[in-house]
Design goal:
four-stranded parallel β-sheet; about 600 residues; Rossmann fold; Gyrase A, domain 2; four-stranded antiparallel β-sheet; globular; 13 strands; alpha/beta
C-alpha cells in the first residue's frame, strides 16, 4: 500500500507531465505552514530554471490540470508554491484501506534481509549500570523496527566474558577460598554443579581484585597467568569460568527483562576465540598484517582520509588478543553461523575509532564480502543536570536496577496522588508507566546526541513524555470501553466516502488533523527504518497524541446524537489506538488499561 503522500505526489506528477514538464517536479511534502494548507509542492520553482518560465505560471498550469476530486482546495501562490488541502472523504477511503490492510498498509522494506544487531555488551561479573541503558534500549528498538520491516533481525548481547577480569576473579577466589577443588592440582573428580559464590559475592570479588591488581604486582602477574591458563583450556579454570558465566547471565537476564529487552543469542567473546589463531595466521600469510614494535597490526589508513588513523592492532606485543581481535573474530563467527546481509553495532559513540579500525580491517582482510554493510550506531551519553555523565549523589555510577526502581517510585507517587487505588495495582501500573518514561526519554532523542537525565520531566503526565503518550492511549481505551457498553463493539469501519451523507458531512479541523496524522503512519515507519531513527517514531506518536487530545476536547464523542458520525469517530480513534500500540511496541514498551 502506497503512502498517502506518495499518492498525492503521483497526482501532481501526472499534472506536471500533462503540462509538458518533467514528472520529477511533482513531489508533495507536508506543509511547513499548516495554517495555510496540509501539503505543498515546490516543484514549480525548480522547473522554472529548466523551462525558462515564471514559476507562478507553471504552478497555475499544474493546478488547472489536477484532478480535483481528491482535493478540497488547491491553489498556486506566488512565487510558485502549490498549496493543497485534501478532501476529507478521500482521507476516509485511505484510512479504511489502512484498517483492512496487513500492518496498516506498511510495505516491508527489509523483507529478505538478515540483520545482526549487536547491542548490550555487558561484562560478566559486573552489575549493569546507567552506562548500559542506551545500548539496551536503542538496540532493542532498532531490532524491533527491523523485524517489523520484514527483516530477520537477530539480537546478540556480545558478552565480555574472556578477558583479564576472568583471571582476576579466579585469582581472588583462590586467595579467599584456597580449599576449593579448582585449586587442588591433585583433584581428578567431577567439578561441582553449584557455583561457589552468589551474584552479590561475585560483584564484590571483581572490583576488589581489580583494585588489588593496581597496587600488588605479584597478584597482577598471577591474574595474568590465570587468564592464560583459562584461555589455553585448563579444565579447573574453565569450570570456574562456567560458574561465573552462569551466575552472571542469570542476573543479567533478570535485569534486561525489567527493561523489556530480549536477546536471541547470548554469545560472548569466548565464542569467537576458536577463530582467532587461524585468522591471525591468514592475515600474516596474505600480507594483510605486519609486525610493529612486537605487536601485529593491520594498516587501515586510506588516501582519502582527512585525519591520520592509527593501524588496527590485532595482537599485542605480549601475544594477547584485545577487543579488536575479538571483534574481528566475531565477524568470522557470525559469517559462518548467520551469514547476515547487514551488521548493526549499537555502542557508545566514543568507540567510533575502534569501529572504524575494525570495519576497515575486516574488509581489507576479506573476512566478509565488500558489499556487506557494517554500520556503527554510536549513541551519546546520559548526563546529569551539570552536563557531565550521570552519577549517584555520592559520585558513583548508578546501578541500572536502582535507576529503574527510582523512576518507578516517582511514577507510583504520581499515580497515587489525589486518588485511592489498591497499592498492588498502582505498583503494577507504575512499573509499566515507569518503563515507558525511561525508554521514551531515551528514544525521543537522536541516537548520537547526549541528553540530561531529568526524572521529574521524564515522569510527567504532561508534555512530550512517555506517561503522556500512555495517558492518551488509556483515555482512548476508556472511550471505546464505554461505547462498547452502551452501543456495542466498534466494527472498525469508517464510512465509505462516496454516496449518501458521506459527501455532505461536515468535518471539523481537529478531526481532519487527526485523520491526516493517522495517514502518515506508513511514511513515518518507512523513514524510521531507512534512517534507523527511533526518535522519528517518538515524534510521530507525540503528534498523534496531541491531535487526538485536540479532537477529544473539541468533540463530545459519547454524547454525539448523530450515531453515524459517532460510529465514524469511534472507528477513527480505534485505528489511532492501534497505530499507537504498534509504535510503542516498536519502541519497546506497552500501555496499561488505566492510569
Amino acid at each position: 500500500m502506497r503512502t498517502f503522500i506518495d499518492i498525492i505526489s503521483e497526482d501532481l506528477k501526472q499534472a506536471f507531465a500533462a503540462c509538458g514538464y518533467a514528472e520529477k517536479y511533482g513531489q508533495a511534502t507536508v506543509s511547513n505552514r499548516p495554517d495555510l494548507c496540509q501539503y505543498q509542492c515546490n516543484g514549480a520553482m525548480a522547473a522554472a530554471k529548466e523551462y525558462k518560465k515564471a514559476p507562478i505560471m507553471i504552478a497555475q498550469e499544474v493546478v488547472a490540470a489536477l484532478d480535483k476530486k481528491k482535493f478540497a482546495e488547491v491553489t498556486a501562490i506566488a512565487p510558485g508554491f502549490i498549496n493543497i488541502k485534501v478532501c476529507p472523504y478521500y482521507l476516509t477511503l485511505y484510512l479504511q484501506d489502512m484498517i483492512t490492510a496487513e500492518k496498516y498498509g506498511y510495505e516491508e522494506q527489509g523483507k529478505g534481509q538478515k540483520i545482526i544487531v549487536d547491542y548490550g555488551g555487558p561484562n560478566v561479573a559486573k552489575p549493569l549500570h546507567i552506562g548500559h541503558l542506551r545500548s539496551a534500549v536503542i538496540g532493542e528498538s532498532i531490532k524491533r523496527i527491523c523485524k517489523f520491516a520484514g527483516a530477520d533481525a537477530i539480537g546478540d548481547v556480545h558478552l565480555g566474558d574472556w578477558g583479564l577480569q576472568m583471571g582476576l576473579i579466579i585469582e581472588e577466589l583462590k586467595v579467599r577460598q584456597p580449599e576449593l577443588c579448582y585449586f587442588d592440582e591433585s583433584y581428578t573428580g567431577e567439578y561441582p554443579v553449584e557455583a561457589p559464590f552468589t551474584i552479590s559475592e561475585l560483584e564484590e570479588i571483581y572490583p576488589a581484585a581489580s583494585a588489588k591488581s593496581k597496587v600488588d604486582e605479584e597478584f597482577k602477574a598471577k591474574a595474568h597467568e590465570a587468564t592464560a591458563k583459562l584461555q589455553s583450556g585448563y579444565a579447573p579454570y574453565i569450570a570456574v569460568w562456567k560458574h561465573i558465566l552462569a551466575v552472571s547471565v542469570a542476573d543479567l537476564k533478570k535485569n534486561y527483562e525489567n527493561l523489556n529487552v530480549d536477546f536471541e543469542y547470548w554469545l560472548g567473546e569466548s565464542d569467537a576465540q576458536p577463530y582467532i589463531p587461524a585468522m591471525l595466521e591468514e592475515m600474516v600469510a596474505k600480507g594483510y598484517a605486519r609486525e610493529s614494535m612486537g605487536a601485529l597490526v593491520v594498516d587501515i589508513a586510506e588516501e582519502t582520509d582527512t585525519k591520520e588513523l592509527p593501524p588496527c592492532i590485532v595482537r599485542k606485543s605480549d601475544g594477547a588478543a584485545i577487543y579488536e581481535t575479538t571483534d574481528l573474530a566475531t565477524i568470522i563467527q557470525r559469517e559462518k553461523d548467520f551469514n547476515p546481509d547487514r551488521y548493526l553495532y549499537v555502542v557508545d559513540k566514543r568507540q567510533d575509532l575502534h569501529f572504524v579500525q575494525v570495519f576497515r580491517a575486516a574488509k581489507k582482510c576479506g573476512l566478509l564480502p565488500a558489499e556487506k554493510e557494517l554500520l556503527f550506531l554510536g549513541f551519546g551519553t546520559v548526563n546529569g543536570k551539570d552536563g557531565k555523565p550521570f552519577k549517584t549523589r555520592d559520585g558513583g555510577v548508578m546501578r541500572l536496577e536502582n535507576l529503574i526502581a527510582g523512576v518507578n517510585e516517582e511514577v507510583f507517587d504520581k499515580v497515587m496522588s489525589g486518588r485511592e487505588m489498591p497499592e498492588e495495582e498502582a505498583r503494577a501500573i507504575a512499573k509499566t508507566v515507569g518503563l515507558a518514561a525511561l525508554k521514551y526519554a531515551d528514544l525521543s532523542n537522536q541516537i548520537a546526541k547526549d541528553y540530561i537525565f531529568d526524572i521529574d520531566r521524564f515522569t510527567s503526565f504532561e508534555g512530550n513524555t512517555g506517561p503522556y503518550i500512555l495517558y492518551t492511549m488509556v483515555r482512548i481505551k476508556s472511550i471505546l470501553a464505554k461505547y462498547a457498553e452502551t452501543v456495542g463493539a466498534a466494527d472498525g469501519g469508517i464510512a465509505h466516502p462516496y454516496g449518501g451523507e458521506a459527501e455532505t458531512r461536515t468535518y471539523g479541523d481537529a478531526e481532519i488533523d487527526l485523520m491526516l496524522t493517522a495517514a502518515k503512519f506508513n511514511d513515518v515507519v518507512a523513514k524510521t527504518y531507512d534512517e534507523l531513527a527511533p526518535h522519528k517514531l517518538c515524534q510521530y506518536i507525540y503528534e498523534m497524541a496531541n491531535a487526538f487530545n485536540s479532537f477529544y476536547h473539541g468533540n463530545k464523542i459519547m454524547s454525539e446524537e448523530d450515531k453515524k458520525k459517532q460510529g465514524e469517530w469511534i472507528a477513527l480513534i480505534t485505528l489511532v489506538l492501534k497505530l499507537l500500540e504498534t509504535c510503542i511496541d516498536l519502541l519497546g514498551f506497552e500501555a496499561p488499561e488505566r492510569m
